[in-house]
């Protein structure tokens, strides 16, 4: 019980048609409460970016798909992982706008928030605003090395979604 008391609570971040849940990694002994948290937020997709510390079978039985994309603690994600992450999100949020995607690292303060920041930046948010939004909810998130990476990151606008309520060809002729 002591180990879970020192962990930050899961944090939900919403922007446009995207919802994210940033959380820490559970262990086999805390897995049932972790699954309950995910279900409470309606998570059906989880990205694990740290070493495996629990059996994902329990989550899969509850309808939660788990992707294992680990990268080094305190580091920026590899380009291939960024591409896979953004492709996964684009597909998920196009098919199910407003759904919640969970992402976790060990403490939920470095790797997971970096991936969420990348998604926010790719959706059109400024780097500074993405960091501020994440840190408002997850104090102490993102280290200086990761901040430098995000500052230098250039968006390719891969998560800009068309609003289905507006005409497809918005144009003003003068």
UniProtKB/TrEMBL annotation:
<keyword id="KW-0449">Lipoprotein</keyword>
<keyword id="KW-0963">Cytoplasm</keyword>
<dbReference type="GO" id="GO:0005737">
    <property type="term" value="C:cytoplasm"/>
</dbReference>
<dbReference type="InterPro" id="IPR003595">
    <property type="entry name" value="Tyr_Pase_cat"/>
</dbReference>
<dbReference type="GO" id="GO:0005634">
    <property type="term" value="C:nucleus"/>
</dbReference>
<keyword id="KW-1003">Cell membrane</keyword>
<dbReference type="InterPro" id="IPR029021">
    <property type="entry name" value="Prot-tyrosine_phosphatase-like"/>
</dbReference>
<comment type="similarity">
    <text>Belongs to the protein-tyrosine phosphatase family.</text>
</comment>
<keyword id="KW-0967">Endosome</keyword>
<keyword id="KW-0472">Membrane</keyword>
<dbReference type="GO" id="GO:0005768">
    <property type="term" value="C:endosome"/>
</dbReference>
<feature type="domain" description="Tyrosine-protein phosphatase">
    <location>
        <begin position="9"/>
        <end position="162"/>
    </location>
</feature>
<feature type="domain" description="Tyrosine specific protein phosphatases">
    <location>
        <begin position="83"/>
        <end position="149"/>
    </location>
</feature>
<dbReference type="InterPro" id="IPR020422">
    <property type="entry name" value="TYR_PHOSPHATASE_DUAL_dom"/>
</dbReference>
<dbReference type="InterPro" id="IPR050561">
    <property type="entry name" value="PTP"/>
</dbReference>
<dbReference type="InterPro" id="IPR000387">
    <property type="entry name" value="Tyr_Pase_dom"/>
</dbReference>
<keyword id="KW-0488">Methylation</keyword>
<protein>
    <submittedName>
        <fullName>Uncharacterized protein</fullName>
    </submittedName>
</protein>
<keyword id="KW-1015">Disulfide bond</keyword>
<keyword id="KW-0378">Hydrolase</keyword>
<dbReference type="Pfam" id="PF22785">
    <property type="entry name" value="Tc-R-P"/>
</dbReference>
<dbReference type="GO" id="GO:0005886">
    <property type="term" value="C:plasma membrane"/>
</dbReference>
<dbReference type="GO" id="GO:0004725">
    <property type="term" value="F:protein tyrosine phosphatase activity"/>
</dbReference>
């Amino acid at each position: 019980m002591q180990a879970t008391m020192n962990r930050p609570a899961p944090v939900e971040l919403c922007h446009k048609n995207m919802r994210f849940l940033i959380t820490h990694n559970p262990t086999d002994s805390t897995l049932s409460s972790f699954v309950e948290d995910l279900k409470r937020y309606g998570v059906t997709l989880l990205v694990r970016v740290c070493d495996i510390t629990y059996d994902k079978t329990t989550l899969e039985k509850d309808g939660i798909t788990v992707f294992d994309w680990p990268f080094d603690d305190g580091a920026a994600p590899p380009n291939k992982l960024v591409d896979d992450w953004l492709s996964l999100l684009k597909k998920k949020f196009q098919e199910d706008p407003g759904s919640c995607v969970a992402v976790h690292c060990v403490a939920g303060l470095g790797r997971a928030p970096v991936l969420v920041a990348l998604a926010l930046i790719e959706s059109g948010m400024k780097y500074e605003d993405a960091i501020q939004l994440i840190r408002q909810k997850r104090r102490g998130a993102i280290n200086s090395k990761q901040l430098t990476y995000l500052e230098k990151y250039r968006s390719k606008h891969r998560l800009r979604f068309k609003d289905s309520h507006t005409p497809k060809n918005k144009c003003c002729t003068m």
